[in-house]
Amino acid sequence: MKSSAPSCFVAAALLAASLLPPLHAEPAPSADMVNALKAQAEHFRIVRERGEKAYYQPRFDLSALPHYQPSKLLTGWLRIHGNNYIADGLLGEYWQKAFAKFQPAIRISYYLPTSAGSFGALDYNQADLIFSHRPGFYDLLAYERMKNCDPVEITAVTGSYDVGGWENSFTIIVNGDNPIKGLTMEQLDGIFGAEREGGWVGTNWRPDLARGPDKNIRTWGQLGLTGEWADKPIHVYGFSLRYNTATAFCDLVLKGSDKWNETIKAYGNYMAPDGKRYVEADQITGAIGKDKYAIGFNRYRGERPNVRRIAIGDGKGPLVEHTIDNIQNGSYPLLTQVYFYTTVLPGQKMDPMVREFLRFILSQEGQAEVQRDGKYLPLTAEMVREQLKKLE
Questions:
Q1: Are 239 and 284 in contact (CB under 8 A)?
Q2: Is the pLDDT of residue 24 over 50?
């Protein structure tokens, strides 16, 4: 075929066109956007690397958990959205294959980019189940307004001991020179919180959760330390209050009030000048290691220089050390867990396929796959019994 123009003319025209500005040029991304996207890319790279490894060998006795026996063999597709960590690890695949041995005609469709967008899938009926941490205020508010009910919440796993991303456990850390042994949950409220007029339980405001400024704890002497510590101020550290980590801690300790110690130093992830992601947990630990009078809440990621963990109590019994066993058995008060959520509209029953899958998750077989993956921790028999009551 003969060209309609000499090739040199075509090349010249293309070159000229490339030098002209586009008719509808997109604005250049801001430095903040570039760094935010770099941080997300680095986050996913690290999480994928962690997901390939089993950090814990099976160590928990699951014999008291019920075996899964299908109520009925069912057929259809089960759509599960949400938390990327069961896809970045192997747990999602393990659950899928193990469940298929009992229910071969139920097919599972996963869409697991992030917990952050999972509740929208329930709002718009795009998912039968979502796997997520607890919903934020506006997640729950939107759901209630659209469905006229609350989602059914089923605890699926306990968060990890020290694997970053897999809801690794809360810990309270102090400077290595600090002699304090432990604190109660009420004392943590006094340290990290402030005077409040009430607190949130879901989307319900509770004035009965109010407390006065007399409960504030601002010096180490108020916690019983003497000598040089008696009049020294408590320096408080933690996560940026926009993170779900901070809101989860607030719900556990500050009665969902969002009223924090007025001097808290709060940290967020950012891209350092060397191009590496400086995570908030490391920033908090590093700062406390340099501050003799510091205390902070953090996600535990192993031992660090010049800081130490302290025991926590619920005020009704002894202080409990932060150990993998005390987290798994539920005795450590700052427990984190991950949940399945589904919709059951008023006057209706739970979808049979959803119910069967949840019964499997709450079985010896389902929790054995949690142990096999080696990051989240399996539920206890007592926890399982409490969840199974919701399926009756």
A1: yes
A2: yes
In three-state secondary structure terms, 26 is: coil
Model pTM score: 0.88
Element counts in the chain: helices (H) and strands (E)? 13, 16
| Average pLDDT value for residue range 233-254 | 96
Backbone angles phi, psi at 211, to 5 degrees: -150, 155
For residue range 50-87, list pLDDT tens digits in order: 888 999 999 999 999 999 999 999 999 999 999 999 99
Higher pLDDT, 249 or 9: 249
What the block records as the tokens of 114 is: 């992030």
Amino acid at site 155:
T
Report the C-alpha gap between 134 and 338 in whole angstroms: 7
CB 312 within 8 A of CB 191: no
Long-range contacts of 46-52 (CB under 8 A, 24+ apart): 46/164, 46/165, 46/277, 47/84, 47/85, 47/88, 47/165, 48/88, 50/88, 50/89, 50/163, 50/164, 50/165, 50/166, 50/375, 51/85, 51/88, 51/89, 51/90, 51/375, 52/89, 52/90
Is residue 6 over pLDDT 50? no
The pLDDT of residue 39: 61
Task: Measure the CA–CA gap between 110 and 80, rounded to whole angstroms.
Answer: 5
